[in-house]
Every structure is written in structure tokens, then in C-alpha cells.
Amino acid sequence: VLGPAHLFRLAGKCFSFVESTYKYEFCPFHNVTQHEQTFRWNAYSGILGIWHEWEIENNTFVGMWMREGDSCETKSRQTKVHLVCGKSNKLAYVSEPSTCVYSLTFETPLVCHPHSLLVYPTLTEALQRKWDESEQLLYDELITDQGYKKILKEIFEEAGLLKATEEMEVEKQNKKISLEFETVEKCSKEYKQLSEEIKKLQGLLSQYGIAYKGNSGE
Question: MRH domain: from which residue to which, for each copy (predicted)?
């Protein structure tokens, strides 16, 4: 459960909306489901998305993404839940703007205050400081607007508000590996440790009579 703390009180609750023969249920920070209310033998009942990440625009939380729902043709169903000001907590509208991608409108008094969905106050002091520094860099024209947006995206990912893309994860891992072996001395030390570990494992395999095929390359 990440995001504005005052929205955490919605966790553990579910809100439903009936349209035609379908009943939609939204459980904040959990999932979105759809149940076909007919007597057909193959009536659909399934998951339209599981809580995944926030949608952030202009440094403001605007919606919740529910992804990795039931399979639909070649992809998974997903839902974007828009948060709008309302007199009570209720699921007000459901649509399917494109195949297997749903759009829900959730009304709540919890987002009526103009500052209720600001991202900055939800961050740790360290991430707020990082944001402040990027603002200064942008002001001093030391980074471009694109560079500023990239830093913000990294901050949101670090805070867990956005999920890092697979490419970003690979980049991070590669960066980590390159830093680990930045000197020949460090590389030699790691190599020695790994060699000793391999010898121990070879010994264990021999002890239990398990065949082992070594790599002839150094």
C-alpha cells in the first residue's frame, strides 16, 4: 500500500457497480473483478487487474493501474481507476476504451482537497531532497526538461509508486556488475573466491558420485 496515506483507509474495502448484466468490483490496493450476472453456463467471472502502480501526471496521483488480470487473446486484462472528488466512496462509471483495457471512475471525498493527491509529501526526506536538487538543476539549466522528467521517474520508481520497466532493471544490474569489477584487483579477488567455491562444489559432487563436466576455458 503506497501513495497518499489518507487513502490507505480504503484498503480492505470493496466497491461495486452494476451495468447491464455485469457487476464490477473495485478493491483499492488489491484488484478489480467482473462478474456476468446471467444464467448462461459459461458466464464470465474473473479478474480485470491486480494492483500494480500509480498513474502520475504533473507530479500528481491521477489514477491506479490494475494490471496482469485474466488473459484476453494475446495479453492480460488491465484497468485504470481514475480518482475523482465525490460526496461518498463509490464506483461511478465503467467503460472499455479498447479491447481488454478497462476504465473505472471512483468517486471519493478523500481526494477533494487540492493537495490530497500531491506526490512530493508522500516521499521520504532523501527522495524529496533528490527532487529539490533536480528542480535546482533544471532552474540553472544544467539539465533539460527531458532529463528532469527522467530523474522524477527514477524517484517515483525508487519510492515504489511506479514499477521499473524490464529494460531499466537490466540496466541497473549491468551497472551494478560493472561497478563491482571496476578494478583489476577487485576482479582478481572475486575470481579467486569463485574458483575456491567451484572447487568445494566439485568436491561435494565427487563425494556423492554425481557426474560433473567442467568447462575447459579459463
Answer: 12-114
